[in-house]
Amino acid sequence: MEMKQNIVSDIKRGSLPAFKEFFDDYYIMLCVFAARYLKDDEQCKDVAQEALAGYWERREDFDDIYKVKGYLYTVTRNSCLNILRHAKVSQDYQKNYEDELESESAFEDHVIEQETYLLVQNAVDKLPPQMRRIIRYSLEGLNNPQIAKEMGIGEGTVKSLKQTAYRKLKDQLKEYFYLLLFL
């Protein structure tokens, strides 16, 4: 967590490399978050990019990673709702959809889901390359024989590397284990 706090300080001082690293971490996550509201991938990308650009413009206002995340999620959500309000959809559908989207618990659930995704994705990215590929294939729904065929290795090797990868992930995510279990 200290590293993320340092990145906020670096961005506040105008560090473009720090902002690029932050952008790379949060851009995809904000796109996925926006996709909960919007069906158009290009609109989702625009909303995520605008939220991050807004953060860059207001970077001096933020000292804390939690405030930055709150800002990004709120701006993304509000931009999506504005797009929906201006879309040419039936009044009843729009009203029902906005009521559902604006419910506080739904918003919190989406934020938690995205934060959890980032935690797991960062942990998977720290695995050795072969284990990382195996875990990604598993997350795509492939079973051990399919992974073995895809990677050109034996099923026993896949099973062994997968077990080791899960142990490493559990170790990396141990402080978040109960949160992940709850979700």
From TrEMBL:
GO molecular function: DNA binding; sigma factor activity
Region forming the signal peptide: none
Gene3D superfamilies: 1.10.1740.10, Winged helix-like DNA-binding domain superfamily/Winged helix DNA-binding domain
InterPro entries: RNA_pol_sigma-70-like (IPR039425), RNA_pol_sigma-70_dom (IPR014284), RNA_pol_sigma70_bacteroid (IPR014327), RNA_pol_sigma70_r2 (IPR007627), RNA_pol_sigma70_r4_t2 (IPR013249), RNA_pol_sigma_r2 (IPR013325), RNA_pol_sigma_r3/r4-like (IPR013324), Tscrpt_reg_LuxR_C (IPR000792)
Coiled-coil positions: none
Gene Ontology terms describing biological process: DNA-templated transcription initiation
Keywords attached to this entry: Sigma factor, Transcription, Transcription regulation
Domain HTH luxR-type stretches: 124-181
Family label: Belongs to the sigma-70 factor family. ECF subfamily.
Protein name stated in the entry: RNA polymerase sigma-70 factor
Organism lineage string: Bacteria, Pseudomonadati, Bacteroidota, Bacteroidia, Bacteroidales
